[in-house]
Amino acid sequence: MELLKVILSLMFCMTTVSVLSPSNFKTNGESGATEYSNATWVPANKNNFSPSEKESNGVRWIVIHDIEGSADAALRWFQDERAKASAHYIVDYNGKVYQMVKEKDIAWHTGNWKYNVHSIGIEHAGFADKDMFTDEEYVASAKLVAYLCKKYNISIVHWEGIAPEDPNNGSGIIGHYQVPDPKNPSLGGGVSHHYDPGNYWNWNYFIALVKKFYYLNATAGENKKVVAAWLGMYSDYWSSDYNTWKNQVYDAMERLSKAGVNTIFFLAKDPWGYVYYNSSVAPLNKKYNWDVLKEVCEAARKYNISLHVYINALSEGEDTPNFYLLSHKDQALYDQDGGMLGWADPGSEEYVERLLSIVKEIVSNYKVDGIQLDRIRVPPNALGKASEEKFRQTYNKDPESNMDLWNNFVREEVSELVKKVHELTKSTNTSLYVSAAVFPVYDLQGVGSSLRYQLQDWKKWISSNYVDFVCTMAYTSDFNKFKLYVDDEVKVTQDPSKVYIGIGAWLLNKNGLKEQMDYVFNKSKLNGVVLFSADSLLNSNELLSGISEYLKEGYTPDEKEKFFIILLVASFLVLAFILLGFFLKLKRKFLIT
Ligand SMILES: [Zn+2]
């Protein structure tokens, strides 16, 4: 028991580990010294890493190791000047995370100097040849990796095979066994051919977890609630003078992030046909003459806000046809009297191609976290040239006399478009998320039906994996209606990670907002809300403080109860007064007679 000093030779990360009594490593307990907020700072001995004056050496890789022992062993060994080895982070069996080397400094962990320079090393309690990694460990490590991927813009992919000889020629997540031997780059495991973390490390599970936490905005290292806002820049709130506007954007991100908003859905194509980024497909909103999306991406990143882009898919003018449809009449939908609508025909291949080009431009040219389709719906019973042609070919029937069949047909075309956007986005970058903003209530008698009245089959989009999640637009100030919407949406989607509830913040006061947020997070156990809109929040400090108060204190219907008590007391007094009056009258009457 007593300080039995054994020197073990290890095949893996550390060449030797001194095993002392448990928990006698030095920790100065300065959590402030860690970069990752969930880690405890236990600095490595200064002889075990190379300090760097640079802010970052260009982190491109995350290297997964195992310790061949416990976290304690690694903590003590990296504090021992004989080790000549270190790692940035250590993850224990119970999910506890330690940081030992600053991310900007160069930990000695790969057996390849260039990879040491361009990577972050994470050691895990466990053995390459034993099935001992725990779920707590996977989860804690995945949160850490999600944070690192976001910070250094690293793709969430497990690199296949040995990583490139020059670390600048790739990027991703690898095991130590994939680090090339600098002398013989076709061999892995660095100069001494380590093979950790070994065959028991479950890469598929791990990468899926990383994606989950990345997406849930793991910047604080926690599986946080998603509090998102839809942000558009078509309103008068936003200045058309570049410098004023830029200040507004940074100010907005700061205020939103302080309130607890951690995700933004930014409008990049509006329902009138204009875009808010540098496009060769569609015209920029005339108000701006700079790349709006690019600046918004940078501002969001500064405040650790996830940024998804949303585009209006099938509306081109919405109420009345816009310039685009007026010059592309065969791509429009028409009412049954031949009047052109402000909606595009989802069966028009030209229109679909154009929309896909817009998606392609955005996901290829901007560092965004996902793409969202808005107004991915069309009015029922509307006719379109291209769709009609396909319908006649398929059924040999007229749409006009087969409206149910026709609406089903068009609904399928809308779903097909969602599927294409999903395929295109994932083929460009697998870590991007595809979502859709949808009407509340899938199909509920007497309440609503996005299925029938919007031709929007979002249940199918979820079950067929055409989208990663939907955001329902459950906008109402009527709390009972809101509950009805949310309950239906939970029931339809089944998987709570696939639905975020859109809240109409502009309809609510502070208390109403807290009440609806509470119904989503606390009563319904869902992961996120999306508030419409950022403008409404920025115009109301009351709403912004409602968000932060809810996230800190939760919701207790105090004010509401107080109100009811006052109401109850008041009605009791009124009643007593009436009764008293009645008795006095009766008494007087009695006395007179
Ligand atoms: Zn290793």
Going by CATH, the architecture of the largest domain would be Alpha-Beta Barrel
- State the domain count: 3
Instruction: Give a short account of the largest sheet.
Output: 8 strands, parallel, barrel
Q: How does the helix and strand content classify structurally?
A: alpha/beta
Helix content: 25-40%
Main sheet: strand order? 13-14-15-19-21-22-23-24
* Rg calculated over all Cα atoms: 30 Å
What is the 3D shape? Answer: globular
Task: Name the bound molecules.
Answer: zinc ion
Total number of strands: 24
Q: Gap between N and C termini, in Å?
A: 105 Å
| Assigned CATH superfamily of the largest domain | Glycosidases
Instruction: Compute the average pLDDT.
Output: 90
Keywords:
593 residues; alpha/beta; Lysozyme-like; TIM Barrel; 3 domains; eight-stranded parallel β-barrel; 17 helices; 18% strand; disordered N terminus; binds zinc ion
Q: Topology, pairings included?
A:
Layout: E1 6-9, E2 16-19, E3 39-41, E4 49-50, E5 61-66, H1 71-78, E6 89-91, E7 97-99, E8 106-107, H2 113-117, E9 119-124, H3 135-152, E10 172-175, E11 180-181, E12 184-188, H4 203-215, E13 226-231, H5 242-259, E14 263-269, H6 292-302, E15 306-312, E16 315-318, H7 323-326, E17 332-334, E18 340-344, H8 349-365, E19 370-374, E20 383-384, H9 385-395, H10 403-428, E21 433-438, H11 450-453, H12 458-463, E22 469-473, H13 479-493, E23 499-504, H14 510-523, E24 528-532, H15 534-538, H16 541-553, H17 558-592
Helix pairs in contact: 3-4, 5-6, 5-16, 8-10, 13-14, 14-16
The structure holds zinc ion.
Zinc ion binds next to loops.
